[in-house]
Amino acid sequence: MNTRPLVLPELLPLLEEVPIVDLSPDALPAFRRGLEYAAGQSFLQAEDYPVILERLTIPATDTAPDLRLLTVRPRKDATSPRPVLLHLHGGGYFAGQPELTATQLCQFAQDLDCVVISPDYRLTPEHPFPAAIEDAYTTLCWITRNADTLGIDASRIGLTGESAGGGLAAGLALLTRDREGPTLLFQNLVYPVLDDRTTTGQPDASPVGGEFIWTRASNTFMWTALLNPITPGSADVSPYAAPARATDLSDLPPTYLSVGALDLFLDEDLAYAQRLIHQGVSVELEIVPGACHIFDQTDTPVATRSIARRIDAMKRGFGL
């Protein structure tokens, strides 16, 4: 189905800038280079914000290498320990780095008066599940252990991520609940990747989702690389890899979920939001008409409005 007439006119330049590419092993190197370039440009722009950008390292262990962190904090002095926002970047689990959305992270740090910490977690296909989520959990625990040094309040931790990072955030919320780890005040999920079973076909799948930016072929490649050697759609996929697989969604933090109406992940995100509500979790859901994947990473009115709603939700999550 041709969904181009459904795209918001202000987002049409994004479709020209990001051509349709079905990702594969051959296409992956170029995809990674593209995101590395975008991350570099975003980081350069971030230096114009009144924030302090710092790169820290969690030392290697017997089971994991050094883990690099990007931290963003307001330049102004704090009168008390700040809340902390743990951010997990997108990129299909096989590309990207924390600097990819550095300007957004600067805005979060400013508007929320918080410290933002984003790990450069291990990527697929070199490091399949559970490498990324263990890196995310390591970061979360490191934050609580180093709260005094970081000048943060370990009782006020929020969680956010977009796309693969949104799925990783949802998986981390499940994991830390089940491990009785640090308490999270909220999870702020932006078009999150949640369900590997979408790769096997959905009889009632939206006919208008996934034509642009992130296609079904790219999605299948992503899940295959993440779950290797387990086959996407099989019975033994972990809910920490595919949060939609979790049967118990109770006792998860309040959730804000945003997704475009033309995004491939619309169906799984709506289903997850409904299940959270049914299991007693507070949910705020934003469906953006005429929006495709990564719509918020544009300089457009629709992106500005959506990011403002996202920040407002996080403010309320932090009790601001």
UniProtKB/TrEMBL annotation:
Record flagged with keyword Hydrolase: yes
Which domain of life does the protein's organism represent?
A: Bacteria
Keyword annotations from UniProtKB, A to Z: Hydrolase
InterPro entries with a match to the protein in the record? AB_hydrolase_3, AB_hydrolase_fold, GDXG_lipolytic_enzyme
Q: Where does the record place the Alpha/beta hydrolase fold-3 domain? A: 85-295
The name this protein goes by in its record: Alpha/beta hydrolase fold-3 domain-containing protein
Specify the species: Gluconobacter kondonii
The taxonomic lineage of its organism, from the top, reads: Bacteria, Pseudomonadati, Pseudomonadota, Alphaproteobacteria, Acetobacterales
